[in-house]
Write a structure and sequence with these properties.
With 414 residues, the chain is α/β, with parallel strands linked by helices. The chain is 50% helix and 15% strand. The chain folds into two domains: 3-190 and 211-288, Spore Coat Polysaccharide Biosynthesis Protein SpsA, Chain A (Alpha-Beta Complex); 294-378, no CATH class. It has 17 helices and ten strands. Helix 6 (183-206) packs parallel to helix 10 and helix 6 crosses helix 16. The two termini are 34 Å apart.
């Protein structure tokens, strides 16, 4: 392990070891699952057990977490679940030895930090520590307790990291199951997933080279890079976006689309945003899901399309042909100072371009689009926006699609 890994272990890991058993020498993957009052956990664990055979063994670390102000009812629910699943795991070990299950109860966490980010960090730090024991740079895989995996999930992930030793991490494909939902729920989840896929495709179309989906149940990173990038954050929501944003610009980061996870489309109000919250809000309000307008995406495309001019010596970028709203934003963020700094620290266009997109990353894209919205460029219904972008991506196609047709089309683009 590197100096960065040793430093992370000594400085950034928040808790002493939770698991006393020594990891198996043939360990090939560690899956981390945060759990808070999760009724569907068994289905998730059984989907892992049903995975195809793969080289080596795997560990699953489930982090039951509750805060210091969590109700006694929820704490007792977690304690009962741990007892139930400990007994369940012992039975599984009699029949198979490819996957080991460990159940952590991180109880009484500080209420200011308790949440999915801290729960992920606890599990991922424990996984990092176990890789450190083996002196191996294996994958730490993130999954959610209401998410089913495809049978080739473990084989494809372990195979990818084995075949691509320089890969620091992957974003894994996903699809929300649509079967078994009533018409209102089905429409809501279709609109929400379509929004996610539209926005990802929009960033790619605009010219952003590090456009990857950032979903907490669909990502995996190597232990060494986990430490180098500072580990998981403790945000109560959006932890996956901020975490994976640090990895997406790294060389050899990849999309893994030969397998997928199937996150639940259930309603949830436990986090301020995400699938469950989005579905619940749509059903309560009885409104269509709104997304970033084509006008906003076109401004983003305009900004990125001029990168060669930013580098070529055009000092006064404000004289370029550019929408005034975009210029207003660039003045606000002191774009001229950024260009000076970027040019001073690069000696080639390729180097400049890489630094440019690391500075104006997915987080900055969000800030830019929110600025446009604050200045009057309001969101629009996702169906219209997705049809517009599809026509830009595939100009030969002139047929307007409905939302389910659009979702299937956008799924096929990745």
């Amino acid at each position: 392990m590197s100096t960065a890994s040793l430093r992370y272990l000594n400085v950034n890991v928040m808790f002493p070891p939770w698991i006393i058993e020594v990891p198996s020498i043939d360990l090939a993957a560690i899956i981390v699952i945060p759990a808070f009052q999760e009724p569907e956990l068994l289905a998730t664990l059984e989907s892992l057990l049903a995975c195809d055979s793969f080289n080596g063994s795997a560990e699953v670390i489930v982090v039951f977490n509750d805060a210091e102000n969590t109700s006694e009812e929820v704490v007792n629910f977690h304690e009962n679940q741990i007892e139930k699943f400990d007994n369940w795991a012992k039975i599984q070990h009699v029949n198979q030895d490819a996957i080991s299950f460990y159940f952590i109860h991180a109880s009484g966490l500080p209420k200011k930090k308790a949440g999915v980010g801290l729960a992920r960090k606890i599990g991922m730090d424990e996984a990092f520590r176990r890789w450190h024991v083996l002196a191996k740079n294996g994958p730490i895989i993130c999954l959610d307790a209401d998410t089913i995996v495809e049978p080739n999930y473990l084989a494809e992930i372990t195979g990818h990291f084995s075949d691509h030793p320089k890969c620091p991490g992957v974003s894994i494909s996903y699809e929300h199951p649509l079967e078994g939902l009533n018409p209102e729920e089905r429409e809501a989840i279709v609109l929400y997933e379509l929004h996610l896929r539209y926005f990802l495709a929009a960033k790619k179309w605009a010219g952003f080279p590090f456009a990857f989906e950032t979903i907490g149940s669909a990502m995996a990173v190597r232990a060494e890079e986990y430490a180098k990038q500072g580990g998981m954050n403790t945000r109560k929501a959006g932890e996956d976006f901020y975490f994976l944003n640090k990895f997406s610009a790294l060389p050899y980061f990849a999309n893994l689309n030969r397998t997928k996870v199937l996150p639940s489309a259930r309603i949830s109000e436990r986090v301020p945003f995400g699938t469950g919250r989005a579905i619940g809000d749509m059903l309560k309000a009885g409104k269509k899901w709104l997304t970033y307008s084509p006008s906003s995406i076109q401004l983003l495309h305009c900004f990125f399309s001029k990168i060669d001019l930013y580098y070529s010596g055009v000092d006064d970028w404000e004289k370029m042909e550019m929408d005034q709203l975009l210029k207003l934003y660039l003045v606000k963020v002191k774009f001229s100072d950024s260009l000076i700094e970027l040019k001073k620290n690069t000696n080639s266009f390729e180097s400049f371009k890489h630094r440019f997109f690391r500075k104006f990353d997915a987080f900055q894209i969000m800030k830019m689009l929110h600025f446009f919205e604050a200045k009057g460029m309001k969101r629009v219904e996702v169906e219209g926006a997705a049809n517009w972008l599809l026509a830009e991506i595939e100009p030969i196609s002139t047929c307007r699609l409905n939302i389910e047709e659009l979702l299937l089309k956008y799924r096929s683009l990745e």
